[in-house]
């Protein structure tokens, strides 16, 4: 099966589709260039939504996300927008690190890979899911950063408990 | 299906093949170690070409590329070589960020993933494509950096126009 | 086929499974937070082992690994643990770069993707492989850094010889 591309360019493409996976470019802010990290993140996630839609899938099907911030101190600000965007429980694997990006005014860059099949199946309950998701996510966003990693404090605690239970043979 | 590896080592492999995809290591300059960013990029892309060939595919089948530069100010210099290497319109998803790399003299590192099937199908017209590609790419390389992102100015303009048209329901 | 997730959270999941591949989050030290880079690496690799196991696969099936270090000078220290962990000859594609990470005390972050099928097939000889592997890896870990890249000096020499032989048409 040949590759399909979204907005193929001379240097790179916005996305490349191979079988049941789509690989998106690292997206940077467009209209929000030079604005706040929250606005840049919203701008990028809107571009990602549009590109995933064009590929026939959506954010609940993202497999992995790499996020770069020019200043890791903006981690919480980026997360406040991210947490309100993802659907809780249908979240991707993710890693966020600091890196200088391609040009001044770009303070966030996000690159994702998503599965394509199945997006339609999830479609029926999506409206409700998203609504419920946003409420829960807002609460999570309001919670203070636990300090240690990409997981929220509750998530870290839950993971620790799970691991402890696993070790105890439960 | 078991994995196949190219140059498997004690620490890492040059590439790992699983079904119809090949995952390449982050390649760093070999002979061009310590030389200019343009020379390092050419060196790396030649290694990638050879590895993709060994895997039974080629650069038109790259799904995604991650590029690290020790100095993001060398973005245009790296791109001048990249733009002449890729085949316009058959380009991968890509993200480029700044990062200190494993040793002094390494100023560029590139990691790619590619599809394997289909490379042969593209083979027939490849000579012509590449020739045409290089001409177009040279022109693009000569164009000044637009400043904003990984896309060239023309590509950004084209993307904006496309998005506007989409929004207008065209 | 829908996605399966391991430790799905509001912000991210520990891992996402799609068909015969599993995508792990960027893992950071848990108990070893703030300790030495060697201890942090061991902690992370143990978490990765547990997550791969939960996904029905193991470290010999890792396709690619991205490693971030807050200080690239700790490259050799991280590698001493990594080299003893991987099974020589069954190693993934890998890239390691420097980056500031999400919080103080996190000096290593590792993100991997693995194939799922085949892990069982490899199971029969695994015990023996690992034993042999650890011996060989310890020797490799003891060898001084060649300076140039992620490959050990022997691996670089072997790759050069292979390339030379290939060019000579052998």
What does this structure look like?
3 copies of one chain form a homotrimer. By secondary structure, chain A is α+β, with helices and mostly antiparallel strands. The first copy, chain A, has 5 helices and 6 strands, in the order βββαβαββααα. In chain A, strand 1 and strand 2 (about 15-20) form a beta hairpin. The longest helix of chain A has 18 residues, at about 35-55. The radius of gyration of chain A is 17 Å and the shape is globular. The interface of A and C includes residues 64, 72 and 75 of A.
Keywords:
22% strand, homotrimer, 5 helices, 170 residues, 60s Ribosomal Protein L30, Chain: A, six-stranded mixed β-sheet, globular, 2 domains, alpha+beta
List the helices and strands and how they pair.
Three copies of one chain form a homotrimer.
Chain A (H helix, E strand, L loop, with lengths): L3 E5 L4 E6 L2 E4 L12 H18 L7 E8 L5 H11 L7 E6 L9 E8 L3 H4 L3 H17 L10 H15 L3
Parallel strand pairs in A: 4-5
Antiparallel strand pairs in A: 1-2, 2-3, 3-6, 4-6
Helix pairs in contact in A: 1-2, 2-4
Report a brief summary of the structure.
Chain A is of the alpha+beta class. The first copy, chain A, has helices at about 35-55, 75-85, 120, 125-140, 155-165; strands at about 5-10, 15-20, 20-25, 60-70, 95-100, 110-115.
């Amino acid at each position: 099966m040949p590759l399909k591309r979204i907005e193929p360019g001379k240097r790179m493409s916005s996305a490349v589709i191979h079988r049941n996976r789509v690989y998106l470019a690292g997206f940077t802010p467009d209209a929000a260039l030079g604005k706040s990290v929250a606005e840049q993140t919203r701008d990028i996630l809107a571009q990602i939504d549009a590109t995933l839609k064009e590929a026939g899938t959506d954010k609940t099907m993202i497999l992995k996300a790499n996020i770069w911030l020019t200043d890791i101190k903006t981690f919480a600000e980026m997360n406040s927008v991210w947490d309100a965007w993802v659907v809780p429980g249908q979240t991707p694997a993710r890693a966020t690190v600091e890196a200088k990006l391609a040009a001044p005014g770009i303070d966030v860059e996000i690159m994702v890979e998503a599965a394509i099949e199945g997006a339609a199946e999830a479609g029926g309950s999506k409206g409700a899911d998203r609504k419920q998701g946003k409420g829960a996510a807002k609460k999570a966003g309001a919670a203070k950063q636990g300090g240690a990693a990409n997981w929220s404090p509750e998530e870290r605690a839950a993971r620790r408990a799970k691991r402890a239970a696993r070790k105890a043979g439960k």
